């Protein structure tokens, strides 16, 4: 549904007024999907679609800050996506690097890398680590940048780290297995210490997780939007928040 000028602005304001401030998600995961299709439909190079998607990220984070969201996890590059053509991956990594530089401007957001940094080129992994250090004391929106991320790999990495830490403490495998809890595994995830996502949004009309926050999203609410990510509007975001606010969360019940 599209609205011209004044009607669109009126509808957007009405949507925002309908939101209950007490029902705004604390943590939102976003699958920024549809950049390639956007470029194809526009008759533009794939790089233009990825750049349009990167520009939308900054706009989206502004909306989150305005509405009081505390944590955002951006699914920017999966381990599966890294098998695309070398030319596209090189362009995408360059755009991600530029996006990180922009995130570091203004000291507004706290950035944390989420993923297997050893899979990334050294310059990008170094940039992620440097930005995390630079912004760690910022008391603002917390932005998890999921680059080189895979949900199964995260769980495997968490279990490996747990076993190595337990072995360093002199525990046997049998002792670890006997006392193992889901809270222990959570404490070794990439997002350790953070609240699980309340809401996961995926654009482009696809209705699957694609490995995104598989452990953390066990009790998340999901919202699937037909808009391709570069076309995702503030009104689409407000609709997602309105839908979330109307749901009765049962946490598995």
UniProtKB/TrEMBL annotation:
Mg(2+) binds at residues 33, 221. Its cofactor is Mg(2+). The keyword Transferase applies. The keyword Magnesium applies. HAMAP family: ISPT (MF_01139). SUPFAM superfamilies: Undecaprenyl diphosphate synthase. GO terms for molecular function: transferase activity. Keywords: Magnesium, Metal-binding, Transferase. Substrate binds at residues 34-38, 50, 78-80, 84, 202, 208-210. Catalyzes the condensation of isopentenyl diphosphate (IPP) with allylic pyrophosphates generating different type of terpenoids. This is Isoprenyl transferase. Belongs to the UPP synthase family. Z-FPP synthase subfamily. Binds 2 magnesium ions per subunit. Transmembrane segments: none annotated. Homodimer. The active site is at 33, 81 (proton acceptor). CDD domains: Cis_IPPS. It is an enzyme of class 2 (transferase). Its EC number is 2.5.1.-.
